Amino acid sequence: MTQTIAPERPATCTTAPHVASPGFVDPNVQQSYHQLGFQTMPLLHPEDVQTLTQLFDLLLPELPDGFASTVLMPPDLRRAAHLAICDVLAAPLSGVLQDFRVVMGSLVARAPGSDQRDLPLHQDWSFVDESRARSVSVWIPLQDVDAENGCLQVVPGSHRHDQPLRGIGSGFRYRAAEAELRARHLHDLLMRAGEAVFFDHRLIHGSRGNDSALPRLAVGAVLLERDVPLVMGQPEEQGWRFAPLPDDFLMEADLTALARKGAGRE
């Protein structure tokens, strides 16, 4: 799949009779996830939470102000975080999911005090050809999270609307409706340390600002069905080029530069 998309005419993905996606072992959980676009559940033991918290001390001993993620950090740091997170998550994820692989694990933090504004609503980048497959994100806080310290926020069911493919750095297609979405449809996800939320990358979501005195620490991971290729959109002069890529692209590419260039396409 190689596709160049002009900004004024984004590609949309129709719903296929069957699409490849990481699946939940429990069919009831799978049905709920399909309807809502997200699913929360306990996942990590306290010792796993402690190990991942210590990973912040090792790789990010001094957190920058505001929002920080190893997704947009140098490749060596990005890879180190990915490998360490995969080591911790492999067994817990295998207990609840089938036919999946982790293509990127990341550390995610929101600094206290200086980062009090809610994160704008958005949809994550496309990681697969969404006319044929789905990708999943898992987000796990390493302390209890609520409206004070930066809990995740979701618009249930928003993944089921007709969606354009989303290139690296692309903006939020529904920005004009953000105020209404916040007022009528947005839900806070209050979660315990080590609990996980799995969500479809098409789901509209954001997070609360961190008004507490401590950093809000979390880990995230991008999950693809075991045999589905990674497909991402890179910005070009006339739009976006969506094409299959090796998984290592997510470890080696300058994602910060691509995201900045992609933002210029909007």
Write the layout of secondary structure elements.
Elements: E1 3-5, E2 12-13, E3 23-24, H1 27-36, E4 38-42, H2 46-59, E5 67-69, H3 75-96, E6 97-98, E7 100-110, E8 119-122, E9 135-141, E10 152-154, E11 163-164, H4 178-184, E12 187-189, E13 195-200, E14 205-207, E15 216-225, E16 230-236, E17 239-245, H5 249-252, H6 255-263
Antiparallel strand pairs: 1-17, 2-11, 3-6, 4-13, 5-7, 7-15, 8-14, 9-13, 9-15, 10-12, 10-14, 16-17
Helix pairs in contact: 2-3
Outline:
With 266 residues, the protein is of the alpha+beta class. It has a single domain (22-231), classed as q2cbj1_9rhob like domain (Jelly Rolls, Sandwich), CATH 2.60.120.620. It has six helices and 17 strands.
Task: Describe the protein.
The protein has helices at 27-36, 46-59, 75-96, 178-184, 249-252, 255-263, and strands at 3-5, 12-13, 23-24, 38-42, 67-69, 97-98, 100-110, 119-122, 135-141, 152-154, 163-164, 187-189, 195-200, 205-207, 216-225, 230-236, 239-245. The chain has 266 residues and is of the alpha+beta class. The protein has one domain (22-231): q2cbj1_9rhob like domain (Jelly Rolls), CATH 2.60.120.620. A six-stranded antiparallel sheet has the order 4-13-9-15-7-5. A four-stranded antiparallel sheet has the order 8-14-10-12, with no helix packed on it. A hairpin with a 2-residue loop joins β16 (230-236) and β17 (239-245). α2 (46-59) packs antiparallel against α3 (75-96). The longest helix is centred in the first third of the chain and has 22 residues, at 75-96. It is globular and about 45 Å long.
